[in-house]
Write a structure and sequence with these properties.
CATH superfamily: 2-enoyl-CoA Hydratase, Chain A, domain 1
Strand order of the largest sheet: 1-2-3-4-6-8-11
CATH class: Alpha Beta
Radius of gyration: 18 Å
Number of domains: 1
Shape: globular
Helix content: 40-55%
CATH architecture: Alpha-Beta Complex
Largest sheet: 7 strands, mixed
């Protein structure tokens, strides 16, 4: 029996089906970009699911067939600032969301159905198992608007793909195709769009039927061995991003993006 609860104000839908919790970012008109409230609520939902002993696996995806999550909703930054949301609060919320995935005592499976950009890329890579469609891609676009990677991306990408790939993605801000992401070890598999649901469902059902405690300890051991640098990365990203979010280059980058022109950054 499925118990579906929509949280429209937070921009996502959470559904419970036996031991499987499916969380869908539901802002297709914004390419599933998330604002501050959605970021906090998503973290809450993942933490709550992990704390429920009857939950065995969390599936995270985006609504529609164009985007998994395209990162922070920059069009909402003005409203957030007017409501008292500071850069420090934003970074704390982003770090908490990524930690919720990494530290969840159950496997988190990402169903990447399109673009995964900004913190959306971090969410996809932070998941324990990530399946993506052939036309999906990862994008660390921060540099294009005068920012640096956050959401642990500086550690998550480096841990999986190495320094060269991490530097290229972070400094050039170009798309990395799903096929290249798979080759670099950033995602688990690439599948045709019409096979994605079956692939995700088969893995989710197998995980839901598995030994919860053994899976928890296995996940903890794998992450301890491969993501030892994550906490330090999150702190460095927070410090740097707080500075950059108040910079003239960021204002120029966002303005240029919203008005669809090339940014002119300071010398």
């Amino acid at each position: 029996m499925t118990d579906a609860t929509a949280t429209a104000t937070a921009g996502f839908v959470s559904e419970r089906d036996g031991g499987i919790v499916r969380i869908t970012i539901a802002k297709p008109a914004r390419m599933n970009a998330i604002d501050y409230d959605a970021m906090i609520a998503l973290g809450d939902a993942i933490i709550a699911a992990g704390q429920d002993p009857s939950v065995r696996v969390i599936v995270l995806t985006g609504e529609g067939n164009k985007a998994f999550c395209t990162g922070a909703d920059l069009a909402a930054t003005g409203e957030a600032a007017a409501a008292g949301v500071t850069p420090e609060m934003t970074m704390d919320g982003a770090n908490r969301l990524v930690r919720a995935i990494v530290e969840a005592p159950v496997p988190v499976l990402a169903r990447v159905n399109g673009a995964a950009a900004g913190i959306g890329a971090s969410l996809a890579i932070a998941a324990d198992i990530t399946y993506a469609t052939e036309d999906a891609y990862l994008l660390l676009a921060f540099i294009n608007i005068g920012l640096m990677p956050d959401g642990g991306a500086s550690a998550l990408v480096g841990a999986a793909a190495g320094r060269a790939v991490a530097a290229e993605m972070a400094l050039l801000g170009d798309r990395l195709s799903a096929q290249s992401a798979k080759a670099a070890g950033l995602i688990t598999a690439v599948v045709p769009a019409d096979e994605l649901d079956a692939k995700v469902e088969a893995a989710a059902l197998k995980l839901a039927e598995g030994p919860r405690r053994a899976q928890e300890l296995t996940k903890r051991a794998v992450n301890a061995a491969t993501l030892a640098a994550l906490d330090g990365a999150l702190e460095r990203e927070k410090e740097g991003q707080i500075e950059l979010l108040s910079s003239a280059d960021f204002i120029e980058g966002v303005t240029a993006m919203l008005t669809k022109r090339k940014p002119v950054f300071g010398k």
